[in-house]
UniProtKB/TrEMBL annotation:
<dbReference type="InterPro" id="IPR020904">
    <property type="entry name" value="Sc_DH/Rdtase_CS"/>
</dbReference>
<comment type="similarity">
    <text>Belongs to the short-chain dehydrogenases/reductases (SDR) family.</text>
</comment>
<dbReference type="InterPro" id="IPR002347">
    <property type="entry name" value="SDR_fam"/>
</dbReference>
<dbReference type="InterPro" id="IPR036291">
    <property type="entry name" value="NAD(P)-bd_dom_sf"/>
</dbReference>
<protein>
    <submittedName>
        <fullName>SDR family oxidoreductase</fullName>
    </submittedName>
</protein>
<keyword id="KW-0560">Oxidoreductase</keyword>
<dbReference type="Pfam" id="PF13561">
    <property type="entry name" value="adh_short_C2"/>
</dbReference>
<dbReference type="InterPro" id="IPR051122">
    <property type="entry name" value="SDR_DHRS6-like"/>
</dbReference>
């Protein structure tokens, strides 16, 4: 799902643990050749939002794409779904093993599954903290750990985590969400140094506010949705929200063999939000 504060990701990977990896395939069998031809990519939360845009782009560039999601049915042609709950190690291990058996290996992992949280530290209770950290942070660790034995065998191994500008910018009413994405940023750096000698590159993208259906639904709660949308657009110095496709292209770059010297990097896709301070327009 996409948080209007500044990311997130794909489907809402919450509960409903599964003990086996149920496979839903809409794969036409082959994809157009490209820079990722012959490689297999896992995309968690890949059924909607940034995850779906990323899955489609990786497939278009030649990868075999396995979408790990709570709802992995009805995917576009060229994507293969594996029903997975990232809060369950049993479910994750089964899904990753099923992907490896289906494809003969794993080369790329896109840790994109995540959920939002709105409010100050007073607004979110312990259950909220456990749920969001379990999905947004521990979910990344579970999927990565399950995939690493396969990634070590790949000549082009890469992990890309979907982080957020909230990891390093103070955004109102996003204390829990920001904490979770700050942890993802630290985890990215930690994993990058741990596995560089394994030949596994680890990077993350930090999107700004991304224009997804979740944002549109979120805006409906306001008396003036158009005004709120304008405010979200204005948060980026470019004057508009980021598109899922723009984030997908950044992820695809970091996952590509063309980025073989890029590891331990956080790539901002935020319309300049993090580093630019522009003057207000004259009135």
């Amino acid at each position: 799902m996409t948080d209007p504060s500044g990311t997130d990701t794909g489907s809402d990977i919450r509960t409903a643990a599964t003990s086996t990896a149920a496979i839903s395939t809409t794969d036409a069998g082959t994809t157009a050749p490209g820079e990722l031809a012959g490689l297999t990519a896992i995309v968690t939360g890949g059924a909607s939002g940034i995850g779906l845009a990323t899955s489609r782009l990786l497939a278009a560039r030649g990868a075999r794409v396995a979408v790990l999601d709570l709802n992995a049915d009805g995917l576009p042609e060229g994507l293969t779904g594996f029903t997975t709950d990232v809060t369950s190690r049993e479910s994750v291990d089964a899904a990753v093993a099923a992907v490896a058996e289906w494809a003969g290996g794993i080369d790329i992992v896109i840790n994109n599954a995540g959920v939002s949280a709105i409010g100050t530290v007073e607004a979110n209770g312990d259950d909220d903290w456990r749920r969001v950290l379990d999905i947004n942070v521990i979910g990344v660790a579970r999927v990565s750990a399950a995939a690493l034995p396969w990634l070590r065998r790949s000549a082009h191994a890469a992990i890309v985590n979907t982080c957020s500008v909230a990891a390093s910018n103070g955004i109102p009413d996003r204390a829990l969400y920001s904490a979770s994405k700050g942890a993802v940023l630290a985890l990215t750096y930690g994993m990058a140094v741990d596995h560089v000698r394994d030949g596994v590159r680890v990077n993350c993208v930090r999107p700004g506010t991304v224009d997804t259906p979740f944002v549109s639904n979120y805006l409906k709660r306001y008396d003036d949705p158009a005004a709120e949308r304008a405010a979200l657009d204005a948060r980026q110095p470019t004057g508009r929200m980021v598109t899922p496709e723009e984030v997908a292209h950044a992820i695809a770059y970091l996952a590509s063999p063309f980025a073989s010297s890029t590891t331990g990097t956080a790539l901002d896709v935020d319309g300049g939000l993090t580093t630019l301070r522009i003057r207000p327009l004259a009135t």
